[in-house]
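Hey forum,

I'm writing up a methods section and want to include a predicted complex as supplementary material. The small molecule is flavin-adenine dinucleotide. I've pasted the protein sequence and the SMILES. Can someone with a working setup run it? I'll credit the forum in the acknowledgements.
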Amino acid sequence: MQRIGIVIIATGPLTSDSLAKEIKEITGDEGLHFYDAAAPIIEKDSIDMNIAFWGDRYDQERGKEEDIDEWKKRIENLKEADYINLPMNKEEYENFVNELVNAEVVQLHEFEKREIFEGCMPIEIMAKRGLDTLRFGPLKPVGFTDPRTGFRPYAVVQLRQDNKEGSIYNLVGFQTNLKFGEQKRVFSLIPGLEKAEFVKYGVMHRNTYINSPELLDETYNYKLNSNIYFAGQITGVEGYVESISSGLVAGINAYMRYKSDESKTFSNKTMIGALAKYISTDNKKFQPMNANFGILPGLDSRIKDKKERYKILAEKSLKEMNITKV
Ligand SMILES: Cc1cc2nc3c(=O)[nH]c(=O)nc-3n(C[C@H](O)[C@H](O)[C@H](O)COP(=O)(O)OP(=O)(O)OC[C@H]3O[C@@H](n4cnc5c(N)ncnc54)[C@H](O)[C@@H]3O)c2cc1C
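Reply by user p_vandermeer:
Happy to help. Structure tokens for the complex are below, copy them as they are.
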């Protein structure tokens, strides 16, 4: 059966205002974002878990009357908590804040400054308000006990799970406009993140993208009107190659819909499939995503060496595509 009226919307991060308005009308108020103020995301395997500890605020804290052994036993079982926490002492905290306030930032356009800062202040700007501002804001330590000392830390950085598989985590409250190199340098000063692998750096810029986990399936097809596909950065993939990959999937599927009722999804062991899966998987804190190894399904056993781990993931992906050597 042939169909008519199939469209692919691929108007990018700077989609014109009139089209954005129409997209908002069909997708609803929560359906379209105009700015990207995202915190950095890191690979869980690169966090030093000898320093970090699991637990949600107040749940993890040792109660006043709580027996120390019972508390230790209780926090052992917190591995399923939403947060990984990184404690800091006074010296570590002050050194971090000092480097943060002096780090190099990306220049924003005036309109971006106005619109983004209103809703979401960059961490480096917050830190400039005073040495203790972060300790009373995103780095506040109340409700935590450092398992290594048995006391409340001076400050705590929290990491929140960022994908369903729990392989990548974002730094809570770390929306930033620091240059990428500076993010690596300054955020690696946080105890436990010395060897952090950043899968995505924090950004603050104009970026029009839809709430794909709610709106799209793995073929980039709009769930409420199967004649509409979205592709490119407007779907929440980010970058040239990522945008091309989504266009490929949407294009193939638009053609298949035109010709028949069939569709084609790509295995999530390949990067094309993993991106499609990421943007279409339930995620309350959906943020645009680049291609990175962290969104591929994890390996059965832990391989510490990054080069070796990536090689195996790449080989698995090639095998999935029936390619033995490239
Ligand atoms: C300064 C800058 C540097 C970048 N550098 C890199 C980089 O080095 N590497 C990288 O991977 N990515 C980079 N990116 C990101 C990259 O540009 C995007 O991820 C990619 O171009 C998105 O592709 P797209 O096809 O979704 O959108 P676009 O490439 O933006 O294409 C969308 C097109 O739709 C048009 N359009 C908008 N509204 C309408 C409308 N109503 N009707 C018809 N047409 C419309 C636009 O004019 C545009 O031509 C950069 C982005 C910027 C802004």
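Some notes you might quote in the supplement: Strands lie at 7-9, 32-38, 41-43, 53-54, 83-88, 155-161, 168-171, 198-200, 203-210, 228-230. Residues 240-259 form the longest helix (20 residues).
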